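Final report, results section. Input specification for complex C-07:
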Amino acid sequence: DSGVTQTPKHLITATGQRVTLRCSPRSGDLSVYWYQQSLDQGLQFLIQYYNGEERAKGNILERFSAQQFPDLHSELNLSSLELGDSALYFCASSVGSRGSQETQYFGPGTRLLVL
Amino acid sequence: AQSVTQLGSHVSVSEGALVLLRCNYSSSVPPYLFWYVQYPNQGLQLLLKYTTGATLVKGINGFEAEFKKSETSFHLTKPSAHMSDAAEYFCAVSYNAGNMLTFGGGTRLMVKP
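Structure output:
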């Protein structure tokens, strides 16, 4: 158990809908990272927040957005969902802002299926 | 842009045999290198990482990896495979200038009895 929690574990929805994925980092960690794992794209970094502020951005679509709240939990919002958004979404956390050297601890993921 | 290549999407070994999972990266600057393991229906767990210092890095569960700058490689090895090692393994890189991990395509390790 990494100490990172994600809810829900599974999510089934329809095209065009909007969903929210939630992540609670390990106690004491200030950074939260979101990754998408799909069969065709592999594991891709989406976005990082550090202590409430966006710190780095990867291959995140404009239809997707994220935020980190004062209690440090984070939410990833996916809107206007398409079939291709079906994937496993991971959240990871680390102590500081320099994700490059730090160990990122991954949650169990949220499996999203868009029908 | 940095990239990571894992040779062999599937590797099969017999129990007790050597495990060798290959990882090469492309970079003009020194990277930080990681190996993660993903068991079925679970998140990723860090096996080991190289940031600076000794190029031979020992990790959990008997795994180790060696950073070879001249070969731009960071191959993962384990002397003797166990059935519980069956999982998917991901090599990843990051750089001082960035915070993200860039992952390879993953290698699924199968261990035969």
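Residues 34 and 44 of chain B are 11 Å apart (CA to CA). Chain B touches chain A at residues 32, 36, 41-46, 49, 51, 90, 94-106 (CB under 8 Å). This concludes the modelling results for the funded period.
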